[in-house]
Design a protein that fits this description.
Elements: H1 3-12, H2 23-39, E1 65-69, H3 73-76, H4 97-105, H5 109-122, H6 131-164, E2 167-171, E3 179-183, E4 192-196, E5 204-210, E6 216-220, E7 230-234, H7 237-241, H8 243-248, E8 253-258, E9 269-273, E10 276-280, E11 285-286, E12 291-293, E13 297-304, H9 310-313, H10 324-357, E14 371-372, E15 379-380, H11 386-400, H12 408-425, E16 440-441, E17 453-458, E18 465-476, E19 479-481, E20 497-499, E21 502-506, H13 514-522, H14 527-541, E22 546-551, E23 557-563, H15 567-578, E24 581-586, E25 590-595, E26 598-608, E27 616-622, E28 628-634, H16 636-639, H17 645-664, E29 667-677, H18 679-693, H19 699-710, E30 715-726, H20 730-739, E31 743-747, H21 752-761, E32 770-774, H22 779-808, E33 817-822, H23 823-829, H24 835-844, E34 847-851, H25 855-866, E35 872-877, H26 883-888, E36 891-895, H27 902-905, E37 909-911, H28 917-954, H29 967-977, H30 979-988, H31 994-999, H32 1005-1008, H33 1015-1040, H34 1047-1069, H35 1075-1096, H36 1106-1111, H37 1114-1141, H38 1145-1156, E38 1178-1179
Parallel strand pairs: 17-31, 17-35, 21-23, 31-34, 32-33, 32-38, 33-34, 35-36, 36-37
Antiparallel strand pairs: 1-8, 2-3, 4-13, 5-11, 5-13, 6-7, 6-12, 8-9, 9-10, 14-15, 16-37, 18-19, 18-30, 20-21, 22-23, 24-25, 25-26, 26-27, 27-28, 28-29, 29-30
Helix pairs in contact: 2-18, 4-6, 5-6, 5-11, 6-29, 10-11, 10-28, 12-28, 12-30, 13-14, 14-15, 17-21, 18-19, 22-24, 28-30, 28-33, 28-34, 29-35, 30-35, 33-34, 33-37, 34-35, 34-37
């Protein structure tokens, strides 16, 4: 560019704060940046980029638009059709609580069953129990659940009252220009609202003005998406300059925006001021729930209020999941239903036969009278013919035997899960000190699933790694600078900016290469030095980072804290600052960079943010030397296609070599390029950019086209290498999971070399593994690659089997295989017939590593396993791009990391570190599964014993369903006599200690193989229940059959015997005794005795004083001892045989604990190096 042209061009690009300046250039500098950030994706490195496309990129038709008159809510909503700003998160109201809560509870079919039983018992012909007693169990369960729901909803109501009662200054619509306080719930669409620093945004508002002259406002969205970094929002210059007129109502201003939707990252609207139409995007709106930061005030107009705000539209909870055990429990429930129907059918049929045989004796029968002779005329009563009697008896039998399906099991499971969740939350081994976060249990109904996981699908960045990016090295014009040294502890060699009498230095220190530092400071005028300076200028300028100045204990020293949505950008800006290019100020129109002590102002003339199509971002800068430069950075796959290769071919090749070296040691890489724009280039870009940014339709695609047109013929400046360090204990965690029989698959968006290197560092990949790599670009090539992979895996299995047989003479050992596949290949595989081939090869591999995958592809990989196997899946991630995967898996875990809380909010459980998976699954998962599995079988057993006792009694009462056990004892049996011990054992019992479970990960296979709950155990349990019921019934029956003891006394004996027997049965299976367990088991027996005595002491109830008659006989106590001994013989025998002749891993480990003197686990985890081991060969 000629000097004269450069001078003239420089006058055009004078800094925007210095007069004279062209108005159109001012508009471009301020508003074009906002438009660009609104219409395209977020910066490179943002994990939410795939979710942030949406409403801002679509066309806005008049029929779909909402028209908002700024400052005039009456014209905006004349019919008051739009909702107010009051929000309601509560589920119930005073009037709707009872019907709605009952409706939700009766969605459990078991509750409908018990309700039907209670209704049947109200009919005179079918009444077996007292009407009140039959309703009590169901009423108790419904009441407990209702109280819990009412308390939770009361808390929501209280929160709503506080939220809706907050005040906000609102512009007087009369035109006085004054702001008057008004409650949030009274705000309306169209009103102009003022928000002060550190205040929350009351509704979704389009910015009109801010305290910053350039219209910039900084907001924190932590309450919306969990991200703590500050976001930049802008007010349009058209409203900034006309705010007094707008406030006075002298200027008609309206906004035409899209209808309310859930997309918190997109917004599509147009602003009309005096007939001039300006486009609005996501960077011009601030959403309810955000907080205004580092900005004195901001004024905006309400466009969405109340339940139409984006935060409320996104407030729905995660999808409900059911545990595998609860699903299997339905199978056993059906079997119990079949048993119940069989018993009822047997009783009713036998009753019909008995009636037919004794039809002539019914008139004087002890249990049945056919005619009524008490009145004047003979009449039939309590008799409807044999057929109807059989039908009635069947229904009565259902009522009597109803507890075969235990209603108390459901509430017991909820209480046990709540207790288990409490101990998981309080577990210090799941507490993350670095983030001060405890384990979160967000879904209480799948605790036991943690003990049955076979597949773990993990994200890499932020999950296996810390997502705290640290700049490590750079390649500048093909020269590698990777000899960085850490700064001195006292910070004497850290670059600082002098501002008055203060010293400003970057908050995060970065290692620097001495050779590169000398090049920048001493040899800056050389050609090599100029390239290095341009490289770091690009790092400092090409970003959306906001510098914040924070204080220190030393008043003369300040820290520069770089805030941004992308950890990669933060690392690059900190690196530039370490080498002397310190970004110290950013507005919408300019940035200020301290360049090696010389403070320079650069005008931001345009910004094209990162998007998933281009995979790069660029910024157009007006430099102090009056030149215009385009700086671009992005992924190597997208950058090498837009570089000028005719003059830089050797440099590009050298840079590629350095990039491969960086990726091989697990570093994240970016390529940086530059282009100097001529006057014609800039004016052409400016014209097309203005047209695209103000377009009414297809604005996003037009802006991407503008960016692509200018991002070409770039001069390569270099490349950067950023390290994302492994989290503490990740290698050990993966090894423990592998030993536990859990397959760990990693699904990442990183490039293949980086992912493989991290795989070695975290011990996911080992030197013994053979890699099968699939990188294909078409369906045909994918098919061939999959077929070759299947053939290779079969070949290795055959070779391994022969080798093992040759050496040992038996067995087979398979060579470990690792499948590495990229997202491009998955595009042609997922949801096609090739899925089956992928499933076949993936399931024979020990490790699967998916690179460059999109969020929906992650969910597709999880579905690949979930839909084709019965294996339990777990997905763990930390970012918004992991949400689909987390929700698809049987168990979803969110990491509270650096990328917000989107993953946490969508998860079932949340924790701070990946390594916590080991104690969560191997310890708590094992305990939870073992406890819940035993509790379900025990509940089936204890109720079956009771039902069969009543069934045997019915056989001796002419099948009339007369019961010797009082109705109150029948009701209290499963609610009071035996309920508490199962809950206590389900919460506190431990078959193995934490130390043992962590020391021997293979013990986790107990849950994977469903050894604690299966059909075989259910059948054995039912057989044991039948035997014990026979013992309980027939020993007293045979002992008292020739005595004068009545049925009520026998009923009391049967009640005490069965209660004591089932509690002794439970006590025999307890592994860890403590005072709470002792109190619950023996206390329940004592409570049962006291209740029986109390019931028999009431003269108005049947069986008055019966217990006193039978307890005073020695035969009573002898019967109890005989029942306990005979009833427990099969159980004791089976346990003894199993302990001595059928040992399993759990029993052996308990013996080791008993005789090996295991102490509590006190082992420590050792963090591993992130640098790779030597890689084996690849099979392609």
């Amino acid at each position: 560019m000629a000097d004269g042209e450069r001078t003239a061009f420089g006058d055009l690009l004078r800094p925007i704060a210095d007069p004279p300046v062209r108005p159109d250039l001012i508009s471009l500098s301020a508003s074009a940046t906002a438009a660009a950030s609104a219409a395209v994706d977020p910066p490179h490195g943002s994990r939410a980029e795939a979710d942030r496309l949406g409403a801002s990129l679509k066309e806005l038709a008049d029929a779909d638009a909402r028209v908002v008159f700024v400052g005039d809510p009456g014209r905006t909503d004349p019919g008051l059709a739009l909702p107010g700003n009051a929000v309601r998160t509560a589920k119930y109201s005073f009037l709707t609580f009872i019907p709605r809560n009952l409706f939700e509870q009766f969605r459990r079919l078991a509750y409908v069953y018990f309700l039907a039983i209670a209704v049947l018992n109200q009919l005179p012909q079918l009444a077996v129990f007292g009407r009140g007693a039959s309703v009590l169990p169901l009423a108790f369960v419904l009441l407990v659940t209702a109280v819990k729901d009412a308390y939770e909803d009361w808390r929501r109501h209280r929160s709503d009252l506080v939220e809706n009662g907050r005040a906000a200054p609102v512009l007087d619509p009369a035109g006085s220009g004054q702001f008057q306080p008004r409650r949030w719930k009274d705000l309306r669409v169209g009103e102009v609202i003022k928000v002060l620093a550190d205040e929350s945004i009351p509704c979704d508002m389009v910015l009109l003005a801010t305290s910053d002259p350039t219209g910039v406002a900084y907001v924190q969205t932590i309450n919306l998406d969990g991200e703590s970094n500050l976001k930049t929002r802008y007010a349009k210059q058209e409203t900034m300059s006309r705010l007094p007129s707008i406030s006075a109502g002298s200027v008609t201003t309206l906004i035409r925006c899209e209808t309310p939707n859930r997309n918190i990252y997109g917004f599509h609207a147009n602003l009309e001021v005096d007939g001039k139409r300006v486009s609005l995007g996501a960077s011009n709106i601030i959403l309810r729930g955000c907080e205004l930061k580092n900005t004195a005030w901001a004024i905006g107009v309400a466009v969405y209020t109340g339940n139409e705000t984006k935060v409320m539209l996104n407030s729905s909870g995660a999808t409900s999941k059911r545990s595998r055990l609860e699903t299997h429990m339905n199978r056993e429930t059906l079997l119990l239903s079949a048993i119940l129907i069989t018993l009822c059918s047997a009783v009713s049929i036998c009753n019909g036969i008995w009636l037919a045989i004794h039809r002539d004796e019914l008139e004087l029968s002890q249990y049945f009278r056919k005619r009524d002779y008490s009145g004047g005329d003979e009449k039939y009563y309590n008799y409807y013919g044999i057929a109807m009697q059989v039908f009635f008896i069947f229904l009565m039998a259902v009522i009597v035997f109803q507890i075969m399906i235990p209603i108390s099991l459901y509430i017991s499971m909820e209480l046990v899960r709540l207790g288990q969740a409490y101990f998981m939350i309080r577990d210090k081994n799941l507490y993350d000190e670095s983030s001060n976060s405890r384990f979160q249990c967000r879904a209480l109904n799948i605790n036991e699933d943690l003990g049955q996981i076979r597949y773990v699908f993990s994200d890499k960045t932020g999950t296996l790694t810390e997502n705290k990016m640290v700049f490590q090295c750079a390649s500048i014009r093909g020269i590698d600078y990777s000899e960085g040294k850490d700064p001195s502890p006292n910070g004497s060699d850290v670059y600082c900016v002098v501002v008055g009498d203060q010293f400003w230095r970057p908050k995060m220190l970065v290692k620097t290469d001495p050779k590169l530092v000398r090049l920048l400071r001493s040899e800056g005028e050389t050609q090599e030095g100029k390239h290095a300076r341009d490289f770091f200028l690009a790092l400092a300028a090409c970003n959306t980072i906001v510098p914040l100045i924070v204080g220190t204990p030393d008043p003369k020293q300040k820290l520069i804290d770089y805030q941004g949505e992308s950890p990669d950008e933060q690392a690059l800006v900190y690196a530039a600052a370490a080498y002397g290019y310190v970004l110290i100020e950013r507005t919408s129109g300019h940035i200020v960079i301290d360049v090696l002590g010389d403070r320079q102002r650069f005008n931001v003339l345009g910004l094209h943010e990162f998007d998933s199509d281009r995979k790069r971002m660029s910024v157009i800068i007006g430099c102090p030397d009056r030149t215009v430069r385009l700086f671009v950075k992005g992924a190597d796959s997208s950058m090498f296609g837009v570089l000028e290769k005719s003059i830089d071919l050797d440099i590009i090749r050298a840079t590629e070599t350095n990039l491969h070296a960086y990726s091989s040691v697990g570093l994240r890489t970016l390529v940086v390029g530059m282009r100097e724009l001529s006057r014609n280039d800039f004016e052409e870009w400016q014209s097309t950019y203005e047209k695209a940014s103000t377009a009414l339709y297809g604005r996003g695609s037009l802006l991407r086209a503008v960016a692509s047109s200018v991002e070409n013929n770039l001069q390569i400046l270099g490349a950067s290498g950023i390290e994302d360090k492994l989290q503490q204990g990740v290698p050990e965690a993966i090894e423990s999971l592998r030993q536990a029989g859990i397959r760990v698959w990693v699904l990442t968006g990183d490039k293949q070399e980086t992912a493989i290197s991290i795989g070695y560092s975290c011990k996911l990949l080992t030197s013994e593994m053979t890699h099968i790599v699939i990188n294909s670009n078409s369906e045909a090539s994918c098919r061939k690659s999959l077929e070759d992979a299947i053939a290779i895996s079969s070949k290795f299995v055959t070779i391994s089997s022969r080798a093992q047989n040759t050496i040992t003479g038996s067995g087979s050992a398979r060579v470990p295989l690792a499948l590495i596949i990229d997202g491009t290949s998955l595009v042609h595989i997922l949801e096609t017939e090739l899925e089956e081939k992928l499933f076949k090869i993936a399931t024979v591999c020990d490790v699967v590593l998916c690179c460059r995958v999109a969020p929906l592809q992650k969910a597709g990989i999880v579905a690949l396993i979930k839909k084709r196997t019965e294996d339990m899946t777990l997905a763990i991630g930390d970012g918004a791009n992991d949400v689909s995967m987390i929700q698809m898996a049987d168990v979803g875990i969110g990491i509270s990391g650096q990328e917000g809380r989107q993953a946490v909010m969508a998860s079932d459980f949340a924790m701070g570190q990946f390594r916590f998976l080991v104690p969560l699954l191997l310890v708590h998962g094992h305990w939870n599964y073992q406890r819940i599995a035993y509790m379900i079988l025990y509940n089936f057993y204890r109720n079956a014993v009771f039902v069969f006792i009543m069934f045997w009694y019915v056989l001796y009462t002419a099948y009339t369903l007369t019961t010797a056990i009082t109705e109150w004892s029948s009701v209290l049996y499963s609610v009071l006599y035996t309920a508490l011990p199962t809950v206590v054992v389900g919460i506190l019992d431990k078959d193995l200690s934490r130390r043992t479970l962590l020391e021997y990960p293979k013990l986790y296979g107990n849950g994977q193989r469903e050894e604690s709950y299966n059909l075989k155990l259910f059948i054995l349990t039912m057989m044991d229940a039948i035997w014990q019921s026979l013992v309980v019934f027939f020993i007293p029956y045979m002992a008292y059959r020739d005595t004068t003891v009545d049925g009520s006394s026998l009923g009391d004996l049967w009640t005490l015997a069965v209660v004591t027997l089932v509690n002794i049965h439970l006590a025999m299976d307890v592994f860890r005794w403590n005072w709470i367990t002792h109190l619950s088991i023996w206390g329940s027996i004592a409570v049962a005795v006291m209740c029986v005595i109390l019931i028999d002491s009431m003269w108005f109830l049947p069986g008055y004083w019966a217990i006193y008659h039978i307890m005073k006989t020695g035969l009573f106590w002898l019967c109890l001892l005989g029942i306990f001994a005979a009833g427990m013989i099969p159980r004791f025998t089976m346990k003894a045989l199993a302990e001595y002749f059928m040992l399993n891993d759990i029993q052996i480990s308990r013996e080791l604990e008993k005789f090996g003197n295991f102490n509590d686990f006190t082992g420590t985890e050792i963090s591993m190096s992130t640098f790779s081991q030597t890689h084996p060969g690849f099979i392609r």
